């Protein structure tokens, strides 16, 4: 487990969705938060896999639990909130990380694939935020919604994915306005080209390799999940207590061009 030099998240209880993959942003985030002494609830539709990831964290000394969750299930969100609050005594933060991508030209994009991406990427984020607003205590809370640079700029074959991630960005701003008086902060993180298993799958369906992609990025490299996790940890922490309704873009300068 990483050993950050700060305990700025000590004692805070945070739910992280989509955390079953060792190579994903969700698990990297849960590991980073645990390294900063947060208590973490990892969820994923793959119950056995997410339990294994929580066991990895517990073996390293973390206070971590795992729950099987379909993030598109409305009733399931209430169950997750109750389980996390029961285990930790409260819920202080939520990371809406679960997501999918189906790359397709618009005339080849099925309505089923459109709806699935909207449901998993956007509707689930709404459900999670709504549930968190209801469960945060008087001290407020923090939500980080994991969007994408596809939520900021257009790109080929991302009609549905971009719509879902762009919708998340604007929904987050509205939630930040609603939550501000209650001490609830809501922000988005927008990863660029990040070496995850989902990125590898998407790349297999498209042209280009790591070298050619990196050449288009001002920093001349892609990044890994740890860089995204670091940004998420900041937004959840007391260091960001005056940051809400905004976007943290972690893309090596790609969208600056």
From TrEMBL:
Q: Which Pfam families match?
A: adh_short_C2 (PF13561)
| SUPFAM superfamilies given in the database record | NAD(P)-binding Rossmann-fold domains (SSF51735)
Name the domain of life this protein comes from: Bacteria
InterPro entries given in the database record: NAD(P)-bd_dom_sf (IPR036291), Sc_DH/Rdtase_CS (IPR020904), SDR_fam (IPR002347)
Q: Which GO terms describe its molecular function?
A: oxidoreductase activity, acting on the CH-OH group of donors, NAD or NADP as acceptor
Q: Which UniProt keywords apply?
A: Oxidoreductase
Which residue windows are coiled coil? none
What family does the Swiss-Prot or TrEMBL record give for this protein?
Answer: Belongs to the short-chain dehydrogenases/reductases (SDR) family.
Protein name per the record: SDR family oxidoreductase
């Amino acid at each position: 487990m990483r050993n950050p030099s700060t305990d700025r998240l000590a004692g805070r209880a945070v739910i992280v969705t989509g955390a079953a993959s060792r190579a994903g942003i969700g698990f990297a985030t849960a590991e980073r938060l645990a390294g900063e002494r947060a208590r973490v609830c990892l969820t994923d539709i793959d119950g056995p896999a997410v339990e294994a990831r929580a066991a990895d964290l517990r073996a390293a000394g973390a206070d971590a639990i795992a729950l099987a969750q379909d993030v598109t299930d409305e009733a399931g969100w209430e169950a997750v909130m109750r389980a996390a609050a029961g285990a930790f005594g409260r819920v202080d933060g939520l990371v809406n990380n679960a997501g999918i991508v189906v790359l397709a030209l618009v005339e080849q994009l099925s309505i089923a694939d459109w709806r699935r991406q909207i449901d998993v990427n956007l509707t689930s984020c709404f459900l999670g935020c709504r549930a968190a607003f209801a469960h945060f205590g008087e001290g407020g809370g923090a939500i980080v919604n994991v969007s994408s640079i596809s939520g900021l700029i257009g790109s080929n074959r991302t009609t549905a994915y971009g719509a879902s991630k762009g919708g998340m960005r604007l929904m987050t701003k509205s939630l930040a306005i609603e939550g501000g008086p209650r001490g609830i902060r809501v922000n988005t993180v927008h990863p660029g080209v990040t070496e995850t298993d989902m990125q590898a799958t998407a790349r297999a369906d498209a042209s280009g390799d790591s070298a050619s992609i990196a050449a288009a990025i001002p920093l001349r490299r892609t990044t890994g999940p740890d860089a995204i996790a670091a940004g998420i940890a900041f937004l959840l922490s007391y260091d960001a207590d005056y940051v809400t309704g905004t976007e943290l873009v972690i893309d090596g300068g790609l969208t600056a061009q």
